[in-house]
């Protein structure tokens, strides 16, 4: 097995001598459950006891950490996971949907009911899998409530507007419901989403006892899941991936630092037609006609921890800015420096949206089940590669995507990832 030298990205390579394709048994694929715990920073399990998650490491695969796409935000990142496409390709560029003519903004939960925000020509795995005969469902997962080319996910539950993020009883009920979908209704692929620890990370901050307590709640829920899988007889035919969309960092505030406040540098009334600011580490501005240079020049070197770009000069490695929805001026702060607009809303103690290279933005990848290796610590990788892995596991032919190929032994492709997958790789 030869790996192209030019590869920028070479994660772990298993010694290929150890790889022998395993003949397929009667069933050509196992079922798959993907769980996302929103805003689970990669190291949240390191300052609190998490016996259940620790046990899973022994029984499965853990990546040291997972790199989400830029912008490190919930809807964009989840949609990259479920499509294998960069954000500038799938077009879900923000949690908020907006209209620069009407100046309307729709919240994260509003957008879950708006197909026009999600359906930009890129198909999420639910739809692709359905078209290939798999039965799929989404439980609160971002994007799961939209129609794609007129097609809905077979079963989709949306979070209500008043849905509490942290009700442990409800968390368990949701697992029971999903187990029933697999056992009684023969679903093949289910995505399940929880709004924690993101909520606590924002409200209380990532370095707090509140966050450690919610991580323990998540750990108990993982323990409940493992028991439920056994009780329902799914242990030998259900693969599980536990992942998340981004990390969390403590928001830096005065007097420790000089916060970023754009109204210190520009007059919004004169220069700005529309903006998306006050939303963590990232913001965008649509200048009034002829005012782009004024805004750019006023902001470019205004604050030592503020990065300011015109759309066409935004760093390409982020694979973010080349979409028509992106506004002409983009801004992001150094980690912890939120991009505040007209004034500072002192709501969030923790936030995200910052550079995905920052360790505080990294998140988790865990997996276990019949097709995964046991006790395997994988090198870090990008979340964009989860999509082709899910396709492999489900025996689904992927849509075009930006991920690497999780190749079987002897195959050749753009790059090789960890040999995580026992059946696929026969390792
Ligand atoms: C999806 O399509 C169905 C059938 O046309 C429609 O009833 C439903 O409102 C659509 N849902 C969304 C979120 O667009
Ligand atoms: C938590 O969820 C359970 C089950 O859905 C419900 O009975 C209970 O009232 C909820 N508790 C709170 C505080 O919302
Ligand atoms: C300022 O920094 C100190 C030391 O890191 C920290 O304990 C404190 O909470 C910070 N204050 C604010 C307002 O961020
Ligand atoms: Zn999130």
From TrEMBL:
Keywords: Signal. Pfam families: Phosphodiest. The keyword Signal applies. InterPro entries: Alkaline_phosphatase_core_sf (IPR017850), Phosphodiest/P_Trfase (IPR002591). Residues 1-19 form the signal peptide. PANTHER family: ECTONUCLEOTIDE PYROPHOSPHATASE/PHOSPHODIESTERASE, ECTONUCLEOTIDE PYROPHOSPHATASE_PHOSPHODIESTERASE FAMILY MEMBER 7-LIKE PRECURSOR. This is Ectonucleotide pyrophosphatase/phosphodiesterase 7. It comes from Sarcophilus harrisii. The gene is LOC100923932.
């Amino acid at each position: 097995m030869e790996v192209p030298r030019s590869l920028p990205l070479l994660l772990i390579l298993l010694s290929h001598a150890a790889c022998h394709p395993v003949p397929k048994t009667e069933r050509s694929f196992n079922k798959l459950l993907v769980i996302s715990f929103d805003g689970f920073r990669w190291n949240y399990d390191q300052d609190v006891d998490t016996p259940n998650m620790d046990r899973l490491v022994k029984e499965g695969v853990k990546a040291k950490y997972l790199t989400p796409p830029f912008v490190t935000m919930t809807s964009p990142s989840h949609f990259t996971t479920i499509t294998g496409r960069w954000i500038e390709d799938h077009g879900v560029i923000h949690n908020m949907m907006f209209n620069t003519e009407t100046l309307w903004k729709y919240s994260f939960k509003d957008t879950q009911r708006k197909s026009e925000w999600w359906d930009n020509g890129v198909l999420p795995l639910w739809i692709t899998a359905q078209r290939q005969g798999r039965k799929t469902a989404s439980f609160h997962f971002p994007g799961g409530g939209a129609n794609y080319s007129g097609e809905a996910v077979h079963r989709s539950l949306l979070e209500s507007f008043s849905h509490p993020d942290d009700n442990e009883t409800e968390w368990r009920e949701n697992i029971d419901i999903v187990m029933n979908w697999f056992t009684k209704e023969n679903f093949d692929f289910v995505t399940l989403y929880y709004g924690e620890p993101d909520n606590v990370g924002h409200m209380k901050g990532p370095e707090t006892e509140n966050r450690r307590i919610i991580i323990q709640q998540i750990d108990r829920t993982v323990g409940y899941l493992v028991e439920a899988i056994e009780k329902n007889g799914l242990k030998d035919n259900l693969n599980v991936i536990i992942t998340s969309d981004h990390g969390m960092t403590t928001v830096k505030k005065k007097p420790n630092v000089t916060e970023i406040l754009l109204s210190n540098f520009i007059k919004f009334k004169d220069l700005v037609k529309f903006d998306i600011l006050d939303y963590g580490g990232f913001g965008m501005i649509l200048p009034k006609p002829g005012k782009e240079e004024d805004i750019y020049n006023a902001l470019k070197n205004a604050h030592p921890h503020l990065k300011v770009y015109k759309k066409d000069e935004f760093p390409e490695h982020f694979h973010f800015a080349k979409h028509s929805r992106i506004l002409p001026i983009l801004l992001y702060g150094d980690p912890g420096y939120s991009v505040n607009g007209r004034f500072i809303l002192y709501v969030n103690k923790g936030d995200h949206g910052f550079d995905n290279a920052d360790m505080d933005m990294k998140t988790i990848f865990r997996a276990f089940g019949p097709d995964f290796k046991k006790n395997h610590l994988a090198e870090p990788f990008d979340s964009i590669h989860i999509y082709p892995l899910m396709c492999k596991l489900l025996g689904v032919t992927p849509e075009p995507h930006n991920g690497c190929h999780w190749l079987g032994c002897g195959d050749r492709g753009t790059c090789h990832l960890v040999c995580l997958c026992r059946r696929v790789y026969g390792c």
